[in-house]
Amino acid sequence: MARTPGPAFEKAYKKATYLQNASNDDMLDLYAYAVIARAEKDLASTPKPGMFDLAGKAKRNKWEKYVNEGVKPADAEKAYVAKVDELVSKHGLKDTVPAELK
């Protein structure tokens, strides 16, 4: 069931770990797009987070929103790369980013 995204996604996925000062909402967008792009999980069969798992609830809600909007894996992959590019130009990357990700 898992899908292998292209090299642009993989590079953006690695680069996202070095984002500087991105908001929680931006990071939730990236999470949801990544889950959809990789088709790692199925929303219907994935258990809902527990009552006190606020971060888990926020991630699932964002993921569910995009699934309900009909976002397909190929579209999520493109959106992820675009979102990382947007956040890099807006916030920059940490100084520790490897040269191959710049």
UniProtKB/TrEMBL annotation:
Keywords: Lipid-binding
Alphabetical list of Gene3D superfamilies matching this protein: 1.20.80.10
Transmembrane portions of the chain: none
ACB domain span: 1-93
Top-level division of the source organism's lineage: Eukaryota
One GO BP: fatty acid metabolic process
Any Pfam family the entry gives: ACBP
MF (Gene Ontology): fatty-acyl-CoA binding
Family affiliation: Belongs to the ACBP family.
Protein name: ACB domain-containing protein
Organism of this sequence: Lophium mytilinum
